[in-house]
Amino acid sequence: MATLRQLEYLVTVIETGSFTRAAELLHVSQPALSHQVQALERDAGGRLLERLPRAVRLTPMGRAMLPHARAALAEAERARSAARRAAGLDGGELQLAVVYSVTLGVLPPVLRAWREQHPGVRVRLLEFAHTEALTAAMAAGRADLAIGPVPEQWDGPVRELGVEEFLLVLPADDPAGPGPVPLAYLADRDWVHYAPGNGLAELLDRVCGEAGFRPRAAVRTEQTAAAPLLAAAGLGPALVPADLLPAGFDGRVVRPEPPVRRVLAAYCRPEPDPLTAAFLAVLGRHTRVGIRRPGGEAGGRGAGTG
Question: Do 21 and 12 meet the contact criterion of CB atoms below 8 Å apart?
């Protein structure tokens, strides 16, 4: 049966691309490393790695095993951290999986409050461009808590945080009226779009399709925070989460018609550990997600912010 040490060796070889570099990183001899990988291959029933002259690549069997190996190592680390926290040995680490816009627009005040209350706990952020990738990471055991759009299916607690609104960003001298601006009015424009694989690209395509057109891309960005800046610079309109816009933003911000909104939520496994439960409580008290006036403050706190 495969051991955690063997799975760690496999993952490290793939991440470093070399048996030599993996052995150095793991502080073992290269023959010992190779022996353990070969033992793992015998247990799996076939080759997991293809040894090339200057590189190492996964075989189809290796590609099938790799995500499970990573999930097993992550689960083992969480088990170790949970045991040490229960024994009072250290503050431990909390792993949060989030979509990009949540990192920038929602988390800063929450993490500030958390740091003040739990300075000894490390927080690791795992950021994803798409809701499906976020949910898959949680299902694979890579994080303690996920924050993003409400998942379609989840076997565990789901706590709604509030309604995230999206606003249109235009150049300051744009001829569009004072707002709200019908999306159909912008049908002939070239847009600041999001890169394929970013969930916001699908959202923009969907709401524009409902308005009767497909948005043409003047530029596509992988960075959610770059979209409002590119729109304000005149590359085209952008649809952005309201919480993403900083105070004093110099672009023109208007509400689209019809409104574009989605519900944000936090979700975890059925029996969250005490550290995850504590973060959920802080998240509920300090999350500010609500309907906003363009260029103004949120119109209300998110659901469950007590």
Answer: no
**Token output for 219:** 């530029």
| DSSP helix/strand/coil, 139 | helix
Residue 186, amino acid? L
Q: Using CA atoms, how far apart are residues 50 and 28, in angstroms rounded to an integer?
A: 21
**Tokens 């990471």 identify what position?**
137
Check if the beta carbon of residue 274 is closer than 8 Å to that of residue 265: no
As given in the structure block, the two tokens for residue 24 are: 């150095």
SS3 percent helix, strand, coil of the chain, rounded to 5, is 40, 25, 35
Cα(244)–Cα(234) distance, rounded to whole angstroms? 19
Helix (H, G, I), strand (E, B) or coil at 120: coil
Q: CB of 253 within 8 A of CB of 294?
A: yes
**3-class SS at 211?**
coil
pTM above 0.85, yes or no: no
Contacts of 39 (CB under 8 A, 6+ apart): 6
**Which residues does 65 contact at the CB level (< 8 Å), separation at least 6?**
10, 44, 48
Rounded Cα distance, 38 and 116, in Å: 48
Rounded distance between C-alpha atoms, residue 132 and residue 199, angstroms: 9
Question: pLDDT (tens digit, 0 to 9) for every residue of the chain, 306 residues total?
Answer: 889 999 999 999 998 888 988 888 888 898 999 999 999 999 999 999 998 877 888 999 999 999 999 999 888 888 877 665 554 434 678 899 999 888 888 898 899 998 888 888 889 999 998 999 999 988 888 899 999 999 988 888 999 998 999 999 999 888 887 779 999 999 999 999 999 989 999 999 999 999 999 999 999 999 898 999 999 999 999 999 998 887 778 889 999 999 999 999 999 988 888 888 888 988 988 887 755 555 544 443 333 322
